[in-house]
Every structure is written in structure tokens, then in C-alpha cells.
Amino acid sequence: MTEATGIVGEFFSLKEETDADVLTMQCGDFYEFFGEDAELVSDELDLKVSQKSSHGSSYPMAGVPIDDLTPYLKALVERGYRVAVADQYETDSGHAREIVRVVTPGTLLETTDADAQYLAAVVDGSSTAGRDGYGLAFADVTTGRFLVAEADDAADALTELYRFDPVEVLPGPEARGDDDLLGQVRERIDAALTLHETERFAPKRAAHAVREQFGEETVDRLSVGDPAIAAAGAILDYVEETGTGVLASMTRIQAHHGDDHVTLDATTQRNLELTETMQGDRKGSLFATIDHTETSAGGRLLKEWLQRPRRSLEALERRQESVAALSSAALARDELQDALDEAYDLARLASKATHGSADARDLLALQNTLGVLPELADAIANDPDLADSPLTEIVDRPDREAAASLRETLEEAIADDPPSTVTQGELLQYGYDDELDEVIDRHEAVKRWLDSLADREKSQYGLSHVTVDRNKTDGYYVQVGKSAADGVPDHYEEIKTLKNSKRFTTDELETKEREILRLEEQRGDLEYELFEELRQEVAANAELLQDVGRTLATIDALASLATHAAENRWVQPGLHREDRLVLEQGRHPVVEQTTEFVPNDVRMDEDRGFLVVTGPNMSGKSTYMRQVACIVLLAQVGSFVPAKEAEIGLVDGIFTRVGALDELAQGRSTFMVEMSELSNILHTATDESLVILDEVGRGTATYDGISIAWAATEYLHNEVQAKTLFATHYHELTGLAEKLPRVANVHVAADERDGDVTFLRTVRDGPTDRSYGIHVADLAGVPDPVVDRSRDVLERLREEKAIEAKGGSSNEPVQTVFDVSSGQFRGPANADGGEPAEEENGETVDADAKAVLDDLESLDVNTTPPIELVSKVQALQQRLEDTE
Ligand SMILES: Nc1ncnc2c1ncn2[C@@H]1O[C@H](COP(=O)(O)OP(=O)(O)OP(=O)(O)O)[C@@H](O)[C@H]1O
């Protein structure tokens, strides 16, 4: 390509300066894209491309008017591009341009999405000498929220990332080499990955940046390790470098300590469908079901509560107290919600003010929202139950006097219905500023003179059909109807003839025109100056606004919990730190919305900590177990729960393993995913955790499956001692209840009469031995011959009779039986003439199989780590297969 000069040359040299994917450069009233960037935006956004010639070559060019840039920027960033914006400025010799900001998914201020928009950094400190684990930082530039967190390992780090669901992630120096972590971030979290310069993560430099931003004491106060500080420092640097201009709205940094919160790994958050369903829909998620918030900030907070349930009994009881008071005070709740309905997103408005993009309408919104706070305070004070609850403390948390005074300032300043442009005046109230009042007086006087000019001319010169108006080409003019145009006085100067009228001007009118234009400009400039001061005053109050915003959001979220509880007959659960979980007539919070739900009881305690849940296919096992998990989670959010009565021992983590739907796309086999999830649970769960296992072992051969399920049950029961619900179709496992003291059987009942199966959805104590899988196959339309033959095979299996393979070349029958009492398999009968059979415990076993059994016997399931156990069992099975 020939060396371009002029504008195109300037564009290309700016493009070289930036690592952004796309550059847009201001040229007068347009932002232009050139070369490949023009083609890219034309493909992505349907912008028209023309050709610009420079130095004998021609370059593709596309442009948008200055005022229309925002939606294009947003669209490009949402498609994953980083866009550099170069603005034009005046120089002595003409114009020059420089890049003023780089817009990325995590620094996009122009979002219209109500969700939080986190920019995250993740630093792997596990390879450094101190072995500090992982450090993470999260910042939402649209609200100024800033958090740091720590994680023990990559899986934990991923859990935190999943919890905050960032739109952009900056991996630190080591983390950027971790393909597995980055792959998961890209696919599961769908975040853009940005490689910010590695030296920006250097611990000393980062600590300095954190102190500069949040104060000298910050690093000590947070008491987090170097990696978390490095992550925070890198984010601050990145936000500054991208030129977002919102650093001032980041007033506070908080440490998010995993210990205060219930561990909810990424898998569990998905399995419980907290914020979206397995299919990826928002509707049908737990959050969408219980969300009755009035404001987007309230919605964001409620979602955060669900994703980060608490472990502190005191904190939860306080939330419960507020929810209880609000749920019984229906009228006061309505009043609060009506007031909240008027509230805008204060944190976002504060961030816009800091960035300098808030207009007068934004400040008006801010003023009105500040007015909501005293309304809430009054409604709370006027209801004795609410006044007595922690709500009083919540509403008093922000500095109410400062908020009232800022509101008063805004009320005195901002006009009642200001325009959205900030340069053309009419933003401010009369009486706000003396100098401005003077300009307004003079402006209004000239306006009045102009408004009354037509009448004056009519009466003075006896003219009819006279109007006075202005337009761009003619300026101010007197327009006189054709019939009267000949009678105008001599000092009228004609400027235009139209079909039915003529336009005139006069010296006096021209003088007034000059005056009004000057006054308009003066007023616009002065108002802009005053408005800018006001905006800076608002920006200086960012922390106060965030405090008020947080209070409004908290009351909104609490009122939402109360509304849902009141409308759905939820009850306040008794919370305690003991190992006991009792639900009387519990229901699934989401399923009960769409189904005539059959409530079920749950009883778990020290002597009954592991429930094996059996029951036919489709009977409701998964629903029952998820219901337990959702209820415990809701209780640890401080919410009421769907039950007649509930008593809940707080847990430190909720772990689930249920059927995986979407993992195949990621190139991991279903079984591999199942095993790594199981492995994670066996390693991480504690005796205070709740574990939900749905059909572990299903993804492999039956024998492997049963063996793994069996061994995992023993390990969870003996070693981990977590409260566990385990649904299985391996009825063999029900035998464990007789052998392991804390294991109990429950089953979901079904009624079978004359071959018809009715699902009762009722959970009862004891095991079941029927799956009715064939019944479900029949319901699903599997062809009759297959269904009939299945019944036949099942019958023979039950009677431990041999089955021949229909249509096979050999008539050799096959027989496999699992012996519950020994916990072992009886392999195929000695049908193929292998080693001579031996007698063992009265059973017939060949020599190779005997050797395998001996090895199996010597395997200590209580001390062998579960995954090793799995691989040993697999090796034994391989040997069995080889002997066949
Ligand atoms: N208590 C209940 N009241 C009403 N409907 C229920 C109840 N429990 C489950 N259901 C409904 O029954 C259907 C099957 O439930 P679920 O998926 O829990 O069965 P399952 O036993 O886990 O099945 P499978 O063993 O085939 O995985 C779902 O559509 C669910 O909505």
C-alpha cells in the first residue's frame, strides 16, 4: 500500500499507536473509519463504505455523525471489539487528533443493560515463592463498585469468576498461560479476554496504585495477599489507560471473603438454575421467579445475594427480621415500592457525573431519586413493625443531611424540564445565579420584544397578516401576506418573496437579532459553565450517592423477598448452626409456580445425614433434591422458604452433580465431566456442606457406575460426612442403609395398577426396587416390540435367569448378577471354557476372576482416595474383561 498522507495517513499512524481492534477518528462533524476498519464496520454494522483517495491511492472509508457514535460503539464492543476513539482538537496551524479512550466490554459506560458489568482481573500467585493462591479483582465502571477476592486454586478462581459473571477478564502474567482456565472463561463465562501489559500486575506498582486510589491504609485493611492487590492494581491501571474517566467514582474497595459466603461452585450455580436455566433462559431461573424489585439496582443486589449466600447467622437473622416485618406490613410495603418506582440508578448516575457525561436530565433524575430516601424513611418510621426492624438502621446508613442538601442544591439549580443538550441553555432555574439571571432577563426582554413585534407592526402600520419568525437562512424576519405587502412602510427591506407572502427585515430587527444571538450564546456558555460546576459537585459526592443507592437497593431487595413470601405462602425458616435440616411440606420454589405441586417432607440430622433417593424415572427425584438445595440456599440469603415449616442448619457450601447438558460441545465426554465434578465434590465438601448427587455413575458401564457410586457413598459417609442426597437407579445402593449408620433410604412413590403407573410425587421412607423405566419408554413412544422385549428381559434378570441374545449367532445365554450382601459382582457363568472354576463362598469363580477378587478385597475403600479408587476399579474390570 502506498504511504497515505493527510487524514488517511493520520488515521493509520494513530492505528499503529493502539492495540485496539478498531479505530475511529473524528473529522469535523463525523467519526470516520478507514481501510480495513471501514470494511469491518461495514460488515458488522451495515455502514456504507465509500472511497477516499490519498496520494494516488484509494482507501475504503465509512463514517457516522458525531452525535450518533454511541450506539455504533456499543454495538462494536458488544460484538467483542476493542474500539479506540480519537478526538479532534484545534492547534495553531489547524487540527490534530489523538486517541482519548479505548472502549472495551468492561469499560463501556454507555450500557443500557440493568445487569452489573464487571471488569475482572485474575492473578495466579500459586507459582510464586509465597504460594499465595489466586487473587481476583472486580470493578463495575458503570457503578463504581470495586471488590477483591482470593481463591485457593484455579477451580476456586473460576467459581468466583462465574459468580461475578464479568464481561471482560484481564489474566495476569501466569494466568494467561493457563489454557484450561482461559478456555473456561471464554466458553462458560463468555467474557472477552484482554492481555494487559504484564508489568501492570507487578505487586509493588499495583499496591501503589491501590493506595493512591483508595487511601494509604487500604492494602493493610483489606488483608488480602499480593495476587489480589496485583489484580486490583492492574484494573485501576487499565481503567485509567482506556481513558474511561471514571476512576473518581471508584471510591471504595471491599474484600469479598469466601469464608463469609456459602461455597457455590460454577457447576452448582448452573445446576440450580440460579440466574438462568440450563437452556440459557433468564425466565424460569430462581432469580427471575423471586425478583419483584422495582429498580435495576435492587435487581442487581438481589441477584448478588442469590449468588453469594451468607454464612453468618446474625447477618441472616437481621435480613429475616426485615423480610418478616415487610411481609406482614402490606400497606407500608406498597408505599415503599411506589416510592422506589420513582428511583433511578444512583450509582450509574454518579459514575456518569464523574465521567462528565451526565446531562441535565440525569441530574434531575438524581435529584428526584435523592427525594425517595426521605419518603422511605417516613414510611418506615410510620409503621411500628418496620420502625422496630433493622430497616431503620438501613435507611439511616447514608448521611441523610448531606443527601438532602445536595438534593436542595439540584432543586434550586436544574430547570423543571431541561433539554438533553448541555450547551444551548435552559438547563437551569431562574434565581440560581445572579449573573445568569441578568442574562436571562435581557434574553427574555428581547424575546418579549420579538414576540410582540407582529402586533405592534399591525397596529402601527395598519397591516394585516403579519407574523414574526426565524429560520436558518433568513434569520429573523417580518412576514406579511401578499395582499398587505404593498402597504409596508418604507424602512421595511424585502428579503424574500414567497407564493402568498413577502419577508422583510428592518434595521431595528437586525439589531435585536444580533442581540438575541449574542445573548443566546452568552446564556448557553454561562449555563454550561454553571452546569459543569454543578456536575463536578455531584461527582465529588459520588460516595454519598453510592451510599444512598445501596440503601435504596437494599430496601428494594428486601421488599422483593417479602412480596414473594407473602404472595406464595412462604415461611420464615428457623436457622441454627446444628447439623439438622427439617422441612415440613417443602416445595420447589420455581416448579411450584407452574405445577400443582405435591409438597414433601425432609428430615436429616446427625443420625440420618445421607439419603439415598430412589424411585421410578420421572417420579420427581431430581425435583425433590433440588428443592432441598434451593430452600437451603434461599434460607442463607435471608429469604423465607416454600414450606409449611422449616428448620435449617446453616451450611458452608452447596455442591451438586446432575446430568450435564452442554459439555459435549467443549470436547469433554459426559462421563469425564461427571467424574471431574464428583472429584471436585469429594475434595472440597466438608461435614458442614450439602451435597446433591443425581445419578452418579450413569455415564459409564453399569458395573463401573455402581462401583463408583458405591465407593463415593462410602467416602462421603465415612470421610467427608457432608449432608448428602443421592438419587440413583442402582437399587443395589439401597442396601447400604443397613450397613452404614447415617445412610437412610427414601423413595418417591408410584402406584401401579393393572400395568398402569401413576406418579404420586410423594416421598416416603424406605427403598423402592422399581424403576418403571420401561413404562417411561412406552410413554415416550418406543416401538412395542422393543418395549415388550424389554419387559421380558427385565423379568428374566429379576429371576436371575439367563437371557439369550435374539438373532445372535450363538445361543449362549448371558447372565450377570450383582450381589448386594457381598457388594460384588457375580461375573458371567463359566460359559466360554476358560480356567477351571473354583468354589468361593459357595459361588463358582474361575481362577483369573478369583485373583481379581482377591485384589479387590485387599483394596481399602476408606483410605484410598476416591479417584485412585475409580482407576483401580477400572483396572480390575479391564483384567476381568481380558480374562473373558
Ligand atoms: N412434588 C412434585 N409435585 C408436582 N410435580 C412434580 C413434583 N416433583 C416432580 N414433579 C414433576 O415431575 C417431573 C419429573 O420430575 P424429575 O425430573 O424430578 O424426576 P426424576 O425422578 O428425577 O426423573 P429421572 O429419574 O428420569 O431423571 C417434572 O416435570 C416435575 O416438574
From TrEMBL:
The keyword Mitochondrion does not apply. Residues 835-846 have a biased composition (Acidic residues). ATP binds at G615, P616, N617, M618, S619, G620, K621, S622. Keywords: ATP-binding, Coiled coil, DNA damage, DNA repair, DNA-binding, Nucleotide-binding. SMART domains: MUTSac, MUTSd. Residues 822-851 are annotated as: Disordered. InterPro entries: DNA_mismatch_repair_MutS, DNA_mismatch_repair_MutS-lik_N, DNA_mismatch_repair_MutS/MSH, DNA_mismatch_repair_MutS_C, DNA_mismatch_repair_MutS_clamp, DNA_mismatch_repair_MutS_core, DNA_mismatch_repair_MutS_N, DNA_mismatch_repair_MutS_sf. SUPFAM superfamilies: DNA repair protein MutS, domain I, DNA repair protein MutS, domain II, DNA repair protein MutS, domain III, P-loop containing nucleoside triphosphate hydrolases. One of its GO terms (biological process) is mismatch repair. It holds the Pfam family MutS_I. PANTHER family: DNA MISMATCH REPAIR PROTEIN MSH1, MITOCHONDRIAL, DNA MISMATCH REPAIR PROTEIN MUTS FAMILY MEMBER. Belongs to the DNA mismatch repair MutS family. HAMAP family: MutS. This is DNA mismatch repair protein MutS. The gene is mutS.
